Amino acid sequence: MILDKAKLNKKDSNKHIEIKNINLDGVTVDDVILKKDKSNYTEFINLKNLLENVSSCQISDAFNNAFRRSGVLSNLKPINDKKAYGRIVTAYTNSDDWGTSTLAIDEGSNGDILFIESSDNDNAIWGELASTNARENGIVATAVYGSVRDLDALKHGDYPIFACSFVSNAGTPLGLGEVNIKLNIEDMVIYPGDFFFGDETGVVIIPQRLFNEVMVQTLAVKLKEETIINMLKEGKSLSEITKIKQ
User: Fold this and answer.
1) For 52, which of 111, 177, 192, 199 is 20 to 30 Å away at the CA?
2) Which CATH fold would you assign to the domain 20-246?
3) Are 115 and 88 in contact (CB under 8 A)?
4) What is the pLDDT of residues 172-189, one digit of tens each?
5) Whole-angstrom distance, CA of residue 28 vs CA of residue 216
6) How far apart are CA 182 and CA 180, in angstroms?
7) What's residue 10's pLDDT?
8) What's the EC number here (predicted)?
9) What 3-state class would DSSP assign to 132?
10) What is the pLDDT of residues 61-116, one digit of tens each?
């Protein structure tokens, strides 16, 4: 099929689709980003309209419904309460080496999420300068399984940050860690290209091979909750709706 580039360029990347009309057929984790030729426009728009209107709680419920897993990293918390989602670029470093974080920034592409595991929380491996660099490179968020610093800037900035802790001190820029490797965290295996979703409540990781099934379940969870909310507004009780009996 020959694509009409003029028509493609006119397509609205912010097009609104009602939740009930979202179609996730054939959607993959790669559709989180609109391709340059916009050949995945339909998948991208449907997926974007879902992800912009759901929470980490709903995605976790969906993962549990489909695979009896939560996907939650309980020690990882939002620093500035901003939502972010995308494909993961992984890295591992000792906490005295913040230089590996800069290598991860260089490895990331537009729309990626950096997920950096630190050996411990003793030193910060991320701060204001790294956030500025990552944002300018098109990376949409960073999750540090360790410590960050510069909270005066990070908490009030527009770049989403998730971390386990924060401290004032940092190590040195050695760059001795590894980028794009498998990580083992909280009984979860995280691979480059897996899906990250974080918001005010927390972080959920979805393996890329299970992405479509979890998104389909997420849509079902969202629609069910909207139905319940409407029933509550009509005067029914939650115990009545969920059929909980004393």
Assistant:
1) 192
2) Glucose Oxidase; domain 1 (3.50.30)
3) yes
4) 999 999 999 999 999 999
5) 11
6) 7
7) 55
8) 4.1.1.3, 4.1.3.-, 4.1.3.16, 4.1.3.17
9) helix
10) 999 999 999 999 999 999 999 999 999 999 999 999 999 999 999 999 999 999 99
